[in-house]
Amino acid sequence: MRVDIAIIGGGIAGLSCAAYLAPRASVIVIEAEPTLGYHATGRSAAIHTECYGAELIRRLSLASRSYFVDRDEPLGTPLPVLFVAAHDNTDAVENLYNAYHPLVPTIQRLSPEEVTALAPVILPRMTSGGILEPGGLNLDVHGILTSFATTARNHGCRILTGSRVSEITRNPSGWWMRAGDRDLTAGTIVNAAGPWGDAVATMAGIEPLGLTPFKRSAFTFDPGVPAGDWPFVVDAAEQWYMKPEGPHVLGSAASEIPQAPSDARPDEIDIALGIERINESTTLAIRSIKSQWAGLRTFTPDRTPAAGYDEEGGGGGFFWLVGQGGYGIHTSPALGATAAGLLLDGSVPENVARYGVTAEMLHPGRFR
Ligand SMILES: Cc1cc2nc3c(=O)[nH]c(=O)nc-3n(C[C@H](O)[C@H](O)[C@H](O)COP(=O)(O)OP(=O)(O)OC[C@H]3O[C@@H](n4cnc5c(N)ncnc54)[C@H](O)[C@@H]3O)c2cc1C
After folding, report:
1. pLDDT, position 313
2. Which residues of the chain carry a pLDDT beneath 50?
3. pTM for the complete prediction?
4. Is the shortest distance between the CB of 250 and ligand 1 below 6 Å?
5. With a 6 A CB cut-off, is 30 part of the ligand 1 pocket?
6. How far is Cα 162 from Cα 349, in angstroms, rounded to an integer?
7. What pLDDT score was predicted for residue 316?
């Protein structure tokens, strides 16, 4: 089989790119696991915030919002984000406000009383105030992934699951690869392999970028009180967070534990740390959990994604789409569309460029 573009990785990165490419090129998505979104994509906290991460991330988040909400059946529902400054973190409110207000003018500073009015379980003596981002969203990750996959398939994209790419060779007619038990050739490879991005590059004879996967564990618990109208509550120094999840609450210590690419398993000590931190700051007395899981958040050396052709090492036709870190779901519409634009004609789409995103900011050459 021959295609214009083979995308390696059937997570949110690969499928968002496929959705925007498929109308304009012949595309195949190749996923090692039997199901799409099995790794980081299926294990996220499903939050859209425009007040998280480096400025480029926040610009991509702003440019992505419309994909989730401007449709008949929205893929995200309103869930304000409440950043809680700890009692001894007195500069946090001003620091966060100054950092985020220029791009998100709707954010508000809150007094300790306003914080506890929104999240009554926060101990008043444990907070010095907060920031409220009214425009946060609770995302339907399965719906978003399905939306991208459906758009791609409707434009003729093939999606192979259970087909790990195990061998890649550059030859005069393009990239030959072994995917599961199939052979195929592509003019261009898109490396959307998440934590395995450097391994896929090495397989293709391309120098790795220096990606680091970090494990984050999460759990759910019964709060013992109604939590349905809480915002997403996150410690301003990202020491813990919690989010209403049906009758339960999702919690995490928000840790970053370096780990080799793998099927991540929850870390008992990290789960205990999350419980301890939440118990310290709230009236919740979590003693048992309902469920637990972990996933890998993969970062480039500057903690912003890489999207662009590799220009070193004679890697013609090798395109990186990696390093989505902890923001890959809520940046996926803008990053997928931008990757497709950069792949096909080297341009950032107007609806993303409008937010100040340029090809240079994303170019993997910055790590060489
Ligand atoms: C606990 C947690 C909470 C998070 N919360 C949020 C949040 O609230 N909001 C947000 O936006 N983001 C969040 N994230 C981050 C988000 O989940 C990731 O940024 C995103 O899922 C990365 O997507 P990806 O497609 O790059 O990677 P992945 O989903 O890991 O997909 C990569 C795919 O490539 C495949 N692959 C690898 N090698 C090969 C090969 N050789 N052949 C074929 N296939 C291959 C893998 O099987 C995998 O399916 C969170 C992550 C975690 C772990």
Report:
1. 56
2. none
3. 0.98
4. no
5. yes
6. 32
7. 80
Q: Whose CA is nearest to atom 50 of ligand 1?
A: 44
Cβ of 164 below 6 Å from ligand 1: yes
Choosing from 38, 39, 217 the residue with most ligand 1 atoms within 8 A of its CB, the one to mutate for a pocket test is 39
Strands 182-191 and 318-322: parallel
What is the C-alpha to C-alpha distance for residues 255 and 234, in angstroms, rounded to an integer?
A: 13
Closest CA to 240 of 212, 268, 281: 281
Structural domains of the chain, with CATH: 2-43+141-210+301-367 (3.50.50.60), 81-134+212-299 (3.30.9.10)
Contact indicator for 129, 93 with CB cutoff of 8 Å: yes
At 314 the pLDDT is: 58
Distance CA 59, CA 95 (A): 19
Q: Looking up tokens 């301890």, which residue turns up?
A: 276
Residue linked to tokens 């409220």 = 132
What does the pLDDT read at residue 315?
A: 60
Which atom of ligand 1 is nearest to 324's Cα? 19
For residue 13 the two structure tokens come to 């990165």
The 10 Å Cβ neighbour count of residue 289 is 18
> Which atom from ligand 1 is nearest to the alpha carbon of 49?
9
Measure 58 CA to ligand 1 centroid, in angstroms: 19
Q: Residues 238-283: pLDDT tens digits?
A: 999 999 999 999 999 999 999 999 999 999 999 999 999 999 999 9
Ligand 1 close to Cβ of residue 295 (< 6 A): yes
Question: Contact at 8 Å (CB) between 297 and 326?
Answer: yes
Q: Which residues lie closer than 8 Å to 24 by C-beta, 6 or more apart? A: 340, 344
Burial per residue of 258-285, b for 16 or more beta-carbon CB atoms within 10 angstroms, e otherwise: ebebeebebbeebbebbbebbbebbebe
> What spacing in Å lies between the alpha carbon of 11 and ligand 1's midpoint?
6
φ/ψ of 149, rounded to 5, equals: -65, -40
Q: Is 243 in the pocket of ligand 1 (CB under 6 A)?
A: no
- Counting Cβ atoms within 10 Å, is residue 303 exposed (0-12), middle (13-18) or buried (19+)? middle
Q: How far apart are CA 68 and CA 84, in angstroms?
A: 26
**76 CB less than 6 Å from ligand 1?**
no
